[in-house]
Amino acid sequence: MTLDFDKIVTKTVKGAKYVADKAAKTATVAFDYTKNQLDRAAIRDQIKETYQELGKLCYSEVTGTADAKAEMRDCKEKLDELFCALKEAEKAVKPLSYKVCDFCNAHNSKDSSFCSKCGEKL
Ligand SMILES: [Zn+2]
Description:
Layout: H1 2-62, H2 69-91, E1 98-100, E2 107-109
Antiparallel strand pairs: 1-2
This protein binds zinc ion.
The site of zinc ion has 8 residues, from loops.
């Protein structure tokens, strides 16, 4: 009797640990994805700002109000770096490794066409 009870406890603990591990893994993937999305948004913002700066410098160069060639070259360097960083971030994008069922919210493998829990088309 005692042995059976121990077995049940061990099984339950193992089961709970499995569920917890799985949930943690899923959360990490989703978190990485969100973080990368934010990183890319920040880089795009910087690119936009640098283009604006370059535009202003170009205007003062054309109108002859200032010699902005050196600063324009700095902007070009900065843009090259930013585009490089954006490319790296895009390469690192990890798409969600599962499909969520719209009907029952179950997580299904990426390549499944139907929900394994309720049979709904994914
Ligand atoms: Zn479902």
